[in-house]
Design goal:
Length: 364
């Protein structure tokens, strides 16, 4: 960019603080901030009590929050701060899932965002009824082709596809771990979120002779009694006859955890509050960890780099798990395919180029 040209200013409109809990929308916003060095960004911070290190670029705007998470009060502050700072920037980039509160925000868009051009990256749709009542904020970005089709069918108009990114240097390819096999499920305590199916599938695999330890890394949501929900999963696993089960809460070091596992098991019946393409799946594939997923439309983008079973089919999922643990050559093949897929379709260069082109188009 020539020195005499002013760098564009962009507001990153997120439901949580960028230095708060690592929700998908926050992670995507942080990735955009890091990928586009020629843009001046404005972003939300929770102040002194941070969950993680804040970005070193851009202008932070303080919001009041205990933990920086997307609570109702913080969402209201984000909307009000967005209304103020939208008048001081050239472009607004929103990272908002489509849930119950989104339709009202979308109808107030002309008032709140002051007619500025808007890019709206949709991490996921948590409420299908809200999707039918919502209006597009501007140019919409989906994470997958299947989500793009849903948004176009809901009359969102101009919908682009930019898959999320994984920093390949941060998630290097790892050799297969030695010792007693570990199988990982990582997710939330959501209805049909996959934890129960993972337990049932593990029981099927165990019944077919597979021996492994199942680790469930569970993240609670605001208002949930996470300890009680974790204990319910332990009781369910015990009733299913699984001898090796470890139910954990939030994992600070996902790198170390993925280094210790052989297979990622992620069989939700529906994504609900998850991202359209969960980042944990991408991190596992980048690390060379074969993954068994439910056969949801969003996961079709992974092609033959993963194994898929019908959503809710614990028996078929368990059979695939038992087979994979018993087939080292197939394990190696899937590990290599997963890493190659991430390098080809979810790398940072492709991510940065697509968003940079979109910014140039809208700012022109």
């Amino acid at each position: 960019m020539p020195r005499h040209e002013r760098r564009p200013r962009v507001l990153l409109l997120t439901a949580g603080a960028l230095d708060g809990p690592e929700a998908c929308g926050v992670r995507l916003a942080a990735d955009v901030l890091g990928a586009l060095p020629d843009v001046d960004f404005v972003w939300f911070t929770q102040g002194p009590r941070r969950r993680q290190a804040p970005p070193e670029r851009g202008r932070p705007v303080r919001v009041l929050s205990r933990d920086g998470g997307p609570h109702i009060t913080l969402r209201a502050q984000s909307a009000l701060a967005g209304a103020v700072f939208a008048r001081r920037v050239d472009l607004v980039h929103a990272f908002l899932s489509i849930g119950r509160a989104f339709p009202a925000f979308s109808w107030l868009r002309p008032l709140l965002l002051s007619g500025r051009p808007v890019v709206h990256t949709v991490p996921g749709v948590t409420d299908n009824r809200s999707l039918r009542r919502a209006r597009p904020l501007g140019t919409t970005v989906a994470l997958s082709e299947s989500m793009a089709r849903r948004l176009r069918a809901a009359e969102f108009g101009d919908v682009r596809v930019v898959p999320p990114m994984v920093r390949l240097d941060e998630w290097p390819y790892l050799p297969r771990p030695e010792g007693f096999p570990v199988v990982l499920f990582a997710g939330h305590h959501d209805p049909h979120g996959g934890a129960e199916i993972a337990i049932e599938a593990a029981a099927v695999a165990h019944g077919e002779g597979a021996r492994f330890r199942l680790v469930l890394a569970m993240r609670g949501r605001p208002g949930q009694d996470a300890e009680a929900l974790d204990e319910a999963l332990r009781e369910r696993a015990g009733a299913a006859g699984l001898p090796e089960v470890d139910v954990r809460g939030y994992v600070d070091d996902m790198h170390a955890l993925l280094a210790s596992v052989q297979v990622l098991l992620f069989p939700p019946a529906r994504l609900g509050g998850h991202a359209d393409i969960p980042l944990t799946v991408l991190q596992a594939l980048a690390s060379g960890r074969p993954s068994i997923l439910s056969d949801l439309p969003q996961f079709a983008d992974f092609g033959h780099a993963v194994l898929r079973a019908p959503a809710g089919d614990a028996r078929r999922t368990g059979q695939q798990l038992a087979w994979l643990l018993d087939q080292p050559r197939s394990w190696d093949m899937l590990a290599e395919r997963g890493r190659a897929l991430v390098e080809d379709h979810f790398g940072p260069e492709r991510f940065a180029a697509r968003y940079a082109a979109l910014y140039r188009e809208l700012l022109a």
